[in-house]
Queue: 3 jobs
Job 1
Amino acid sequence: MKELKSTELLDKQIQLEAAKKIQNILEKADRECEEILQTVTQELEEARKQKQEFYSRKLKEEQVNLEATFPLEKQRLELAYIQEALISGINEYLEKMGDQKRLSIVLGELNEQKSVLQDKKCSAYIYGFDFNDAKKELEKAIGNNLLKVEKTEYGKMIIENDLAIKCQQGIILEAQDKSFRIRLTLNQIISRILDENRDQLNAALFGEGEND
């Protein structure tokens, strides 16, 4: 009987010691979990700060870049708009002018080329204009130095400066010995006028050019 009680007491003692050990293990595990959780939380907070600082720097860099490029982009858009408005106005003006007046303007360029054309035989290539009208006026202006007159197409014989001019009309003169080609084209005339008046245009638009 005594042996039975001794065995029961021993079992209880073993159970108590086991329970204490389990409790200690659980408490230690809790502490370790808490430490791990705290470490992870700190790392997450540090990562969040680093990410926030990174995007803050990137935002400032983009803002600086935008501030640097905005004036240039604004000026580019203004110039594009002004160029478009100018060409639109020129197209409307040329359209109202009529074919004969445009032909007269183109042939008026011959006055600037008299020294080149003097005693030179040349051929003429016409595009855009009424062929017979243009040929007749050329024969009057150049006389016996005009070898032949033929039709051609816009941009076929020479590279044109594309200004978006709707009236694609012109005359190309080519020397018999191929020593020169003279462009008598609306594109060429409009391009020259714009270039000659660019300083005045810039001054009117931006307050620049005339006093530089």
Note: The chain has a mean pLDDT of 76.
Job 2
Amino acid sequence: MSKIRVYTLNRNNMKRLSLAIIFACCTLTVAAQEDGFRVNYQGAKPTIKDFALAYITSLISEAEECDEEGMSLYENLQDAIKCQTKGLPLEANRTLTIDQKNGFLVYEHKYVEHLGRIEMCYWNETDGKHKLFACNRWSFENGKLCPATNWKGYHCHYVGR
């Protein structure tokens, strides 16, 4: 016969539990705040281009965990945004789709049998002062996903004014 240990919560245990929960929440809040980046923009509000350029700049300046292929793809996206802003055509193996109204961007760079794809988007927070920015990078070889070179899910950042 196995025994089950039952814990009761008395006042001291409740205080310890409450303090642990508060500490954990504060730690998560600070970690989320440090993960953000500053977006410079002109006009009434930032666009997805502003978010993309700021994010790429933060990746390059902080040398965040990203493989060489990933950094090259981000730098190519940065060049593509600048070309499109100046009204210059992109190279034939690159496509850049920007939905300014909905805050969404997709960039694809094809070379030989490889395709690199970056998706970026942002959402407005209810307070009107903060944004949630997400980025995902995919790599395909011969039409098949290359899991070893992909990030694990979306990278989300909380961005304030």
Note: The first helix runs from residue 11 to 34.
Job 3
Amino acid sequence: MSQEPIDNMQNELENNLENNINQTENANSELSNEEKLEQDLATEKDRFLRLFAEFENYKKRTSKERVELFKTANQEVLQAMLPVIDDFDRAMTQILKSEDENLVKGVELIFDKLKSTLKSKGLEEVEIKKGDTFDADLAEAITQIPAGDELKGKVVDVVEKGYKLGDKIIRFPKVVVGQ
């Protein structure tokens, strides 16, 4: 037998082996390309989700800031109106002493309209009266005076009314507390 068929078979086997190795390497490189693309896709998806979440947070934050801005602007105007309301209260006290009923009715109508308008904007009076227990979270004590045991730690007099806008007190009532 000649050596030639064996050499041909050996060459053929070597070629087949090389082809198989090349195909495996190509498959591995294709797999690695596919895996690389999948990783890139996952990275971009993650980036997209983070960006989307950040944008949603931005929208919520700006809408909250816008609402706060409107409340703050309203608060400044209402705080500027508080001395006018105080003056109106003092004027009403004096006008009620007047004998001119038409004057009293007219001023009462205007004052009630002013109060209702401010109430519709969210302004409310802080309810505190003589005899209430003093609470430093709701009122400001401007002085203490000696009082009997029944008025100790209680409000003796309300010097200036307090007001709140929604749940926030914008001016604390000023009171005299019994000692």
Note: The longest helix spans residues 3-95.
